[in-house]
C-alpha cells in the first residue's frame, strides 16, 4: 500500500486513539505505518487478546459497517447504537482517518480503495504473535462464530477453521454458529482436534434431560503468577435462532444466576481476575454486567459491534468492563490488566483494526490457508457477474447484498414477496468488482440454507414481521436475539420500533394495495429453522441465485426496499 504523507499522518492520528504514543513517527515515511499502528506498549502484568465473529474469513475482505443500528428506550444514543459521525465523535476518532474507515460506514468506497482490505488470518496471525511476544503469558480468546460463514468452512465441515485456529494459537473459545454443525461434530472437534490444547467453555449449555454441563463452564489459567478465570457464555438463544434439531439434547439460556455461581466458585478457587468470554450480544452483556458481581470484564461478540472504547457498567460488586470486538476478522482486542496484591488496579484496552496492506502476512499461516483453499480455488473464483454498485449486508433493515438475494428469489421463484434472514455476517464488494461464487457463499453458507416458497396469509406475514421486530427492538435486552430485521422484497410497510409488541408493523402494501389478513400470498425465503425443511428436497439458496446472476451478467446498483420509520428521529443510530 502506498500512502501519501497527508494520509500517513491521518493514520497516525487514528492510531493515537486509545493512548498509543506515536508522536515519534510523525515525520517517518509510509513504510513506518506498520510500526505506528501496531506498536502498542506493554501495560500491567495480565494480558488477554480477543477476537470474535470472524465467520470463517481466512482471506482479507472488504466489510462495510452499518449506517442504521437503532437503540430504543434506555439504549437510545448509547454504545453500541451509534453509527457514522456519532460513533466517531463519541470515541474521539478523527473523520477521514484509517480508524474512521475501520469503525464506520463513512465514505466506504473511497476509504476502502485508499486503505485496502481488512482482516485475513495471516495478517491477524502476525499481530497475535507480536502481541504475545510483547506480553508474556497473554491468552488468545475466541468469542465464537468462527467455524461458519464461508464456502470452505461449509465444504470442509469446519475443519479449515479448526486447523487455522489451532495454528493461530487460540487458547479458549465459546460458540454459537459452531453448534449448527450438530452436536456430534462439535464434540468430535473438541475431543479430537482441541484435546488439552484449546478449551471450549460455556457455563450456560446443559443437557436437556438432567441439566448436566455439556462443556467446561470455565478454566483458570495462570498469567505471570496471577490466576485468571475465563468463563464461557455461549449464545443463549441458539435453539430459537437456529434449528432446534441441531442441538436437540442441549438446553441454553442466559442463566446469569448460574454465572454468578461460577464467578463465586472461580474466586473461591483463587482466581484474582475473572473474565466472561461472551456471545450474548452487547446489549445483553451490558445488562448482565449490571446483575452479576465479581466480573472484571465481559469480552463480547455476536452483534458484530466494533467498539473502540469499553463501556463501564456499575453493579453491586463494583464495575465491569464490557467490550465488543467487531466481526469478520477486522479487529483484535487487547485488554491489559495491572494486578497488584491480588486485585485489578488499572487496565488499558485497545481494539486494533487489521489492515492487510499494512500488516504483513504471517508466512506459516499463509501457507496453511493456501493449502486449505487449493482444492477449491477454481470453484471459489468463478465469476458469476459484475456489480456496478456496492454490495453489503450489515444494517438494521436491509443491505444491497440482501437486496440482490431478494431480487433473485422473486424473479426465479416467481414470488411477489421474498424474505431474507437478518444475518449480520457476509462480506462487501465495491462497485465494479466481480461477483464470484466465493462472495455468494460468503452471504449464504449455512448448513440449512434451503430455499423455500410458502403461501402465507396477510395475518401470518404481519406476525412474522412483528416477531422479528420484537426480537430486534424489545426494550429489555434479555428478549433480544441479536440479528437484524428480516429483509423484505416486494412488500412495503411502516415500522415504529418504539411501539409495543404486536403494534410495530403497519401499512403493509403489495403494489400499493394493502395486504388482506385472510388472503394468501406467495412468499420466497431461505434458511428455515423448521426440521421438516431438511427433508423437503428444496434447493440451496445459492443454487437459486447463481443461475440468475449468470443471466444478469452486470448488476445495476440495487435499490433498497426498506420500511418507512416512525417515531425514531432524532437517533444517533440512524445515518
TrEMBL record:
Organism domain of life: Bacteria
Keyword vocabulary terms for this entry: Hydrolase, Nucleotide-binding
Record InterPro entries: 5'-Nucleotdase_C, 5'-Nucleotdase_C_sf, 5_nucleotidase/apyrase, Metallo-depent_PP-like, SoxB_N, TAT_signal, Thiosulf_SoxB
SUPFAM superfamilies xref list: 5'-nucleotidase (syn. UDP-sugar hydrolase), C-terminal domain (SSF55816), Metallo-dependent phosphatases (SSF56300)
Entry annotated with the keyword Hydrolase: yes
NCBIfam families linked to this entry: thiosulf_SoxB (TIGR04486)
Family, per entry: Belongs to the 5'-nucleotidase family.
Name of protein: Sulfur-oxidizing protein SoxB
Species this chain originates from: Comamonas odontotermitis
Amino acid at each position: 500500500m502506498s500512502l501519501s504523507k497527508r494520509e500517513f499522518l491521518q493514520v497516525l492520528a487514528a492510531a493515537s486513539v486509545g493512548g498509543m504514543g506515536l508522536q515519534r513517527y510523525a515525520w517517518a515515511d509510509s513504510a513506518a505505518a506498520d510500526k505506528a499502528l501496531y506498536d502498542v506498549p506493554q501495560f500491567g502484568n495480565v494480558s488477554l487478546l480477543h477476537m470474535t465473529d470472524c465467520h470463517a474469513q481466512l482471506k482479507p475482505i472488504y466489510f462495510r459497517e452499518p449506517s442504521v443500528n437503532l437503540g430504543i428506550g434506555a439504549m437510545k444514543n448509547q454504545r453500541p447504537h451509534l453509527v457514522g459521525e456519532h460513533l466517531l465523535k463519541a470515541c474521539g476518532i478523527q473523520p477521514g482517518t484509517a480508524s474512521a474507515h475501520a469503525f464506520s460506514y463513512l465514505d466506504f468506497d473511497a476509504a476502502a480503495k485508499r486503505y485496502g482490505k481488512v482482516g485475513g488470518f495471516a495478517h491477524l496471525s502476525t499481530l497475535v504473535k507480536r502481541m504475545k511476544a510483547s506480553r508474556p503469558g497473554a491468552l488468545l480468546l475466541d468469542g465464537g462464530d468462527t467455524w461458519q460463514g464461508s464456502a470452505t468452512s461449509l465444504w470442509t465441515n469446519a475443519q479449515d477453521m479448526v486447523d487455522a485456529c489451532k495454528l493461530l494459537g487460540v487458547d479458549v473459545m465459546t460458540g454459537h454458529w459452531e453448534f449448527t454443525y450438530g452436536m456430534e461434530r462439535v464434540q468430535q472437534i473438541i475431543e479430537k482436534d482441541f484435546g488439552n490444547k484449546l478449551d471450549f467453555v460455556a457455563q450456560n449449555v446443559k443437557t436437556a434431560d438432567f441439566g448436566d454441563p455439556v462443556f467446561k463452564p470455565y478454566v483458570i489459567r495462570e498469567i505471570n503468577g496471577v490466576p485468571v478465570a475465563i468463563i464461557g457464555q455461549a449464545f443463549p438463544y441458539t435453539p430459537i435462532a437456529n434449528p432446534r434439531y441441531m442441538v436437540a439434547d442441549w438446553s441454553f439460556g442466559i442463566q446469569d444466576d448460574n454465572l454468578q455461581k461460577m464467578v463465586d466458585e472461580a474466586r473461591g478457587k483463587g482466581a484474582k481476575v475473572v473474565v466472561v468470554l461472551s456471545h450474548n450480544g452487547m446489549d445483553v452483556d451490558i445488562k448482565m454486567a449490571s446483575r452479576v458481581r465479581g466480573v472484571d470484564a465481559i469480552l463480547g461478540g455476536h452483534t458484530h459491534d466494533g467498539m473502540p472504547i469499553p463501556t463501564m457498567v456499575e453493579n453491586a460488586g463494583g464495575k465491569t468492563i464490557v467490550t465488543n470486538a467487531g466481526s469478520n476478522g477486522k479487529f483484535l482486542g487487547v485488554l491489559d490488566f495491572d494486578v497488584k496484591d491480588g486485585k485489578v488496579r488499572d487496565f488499558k484496552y485497545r481494539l486494533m483494526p487489521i489492515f492487510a496492506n499494512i500488516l504483513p502476512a504471517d508466512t506459516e499461516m499463509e501457507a496453511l490457508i493456501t493449502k486449505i483453499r487449493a482444492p477449491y480455488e477454481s470453484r471459489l473464483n468463478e465469476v458469476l457477474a459484475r456489480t456496478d454498485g456496492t454490495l453489503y449486508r450489515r444494517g438494521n433493515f436491509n443491505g444491497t447484498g440482501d437486496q440482490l438475494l431478494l431480487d433473485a428469489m422473486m424473479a426465479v421463484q416467481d414470488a411477489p414477496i421474498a424474505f431474507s434472514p437478518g444475518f449480520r455476517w457476509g462480506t462487501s464488494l465495491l462497485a465494479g468488482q466481480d461477483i464470484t461464487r466465493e462472495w455468494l457463499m460468503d452471504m449464504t453458507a449455512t448448513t440449512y440454507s434451503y430455499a423455500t416458497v410458502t403461501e402465507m396469509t396477510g395475518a401470518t406475514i404481519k406476525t412474522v414481521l412483528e416477531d422479528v421486530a420484537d426480537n430486534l427492538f424489545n426494550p429489555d435486552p434479555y428478549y433480544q436475539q441479536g440479528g437484524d430485521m428480516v429483509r423484505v422484497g416486494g412488500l412495503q410497510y411502516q415500522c415504529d420500533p418504539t411501539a409495543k409488541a404486536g403494534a410495530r408493523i403497519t401499512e403493509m402494501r403489495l403494489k400499493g394495495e394493502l395486504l388482506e389478513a385472510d388472503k394468501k400470498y406467495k412468499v420466497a425465503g431461505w434458511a428455515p429453522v423448521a426440521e421438516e425443511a431438511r427433508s423437503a428436497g428444496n434447493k440451496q439458496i445459492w443454487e437459486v441465485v447463481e443461475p440468475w446472476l449468470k443471466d444478469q451478467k452486470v448488476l445495476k446498483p440495487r435499490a433498497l426496499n426498506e420500511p418507512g420509520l416512525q417515531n425514531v428521529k432524532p437517533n444517533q443510530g440512524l445515518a
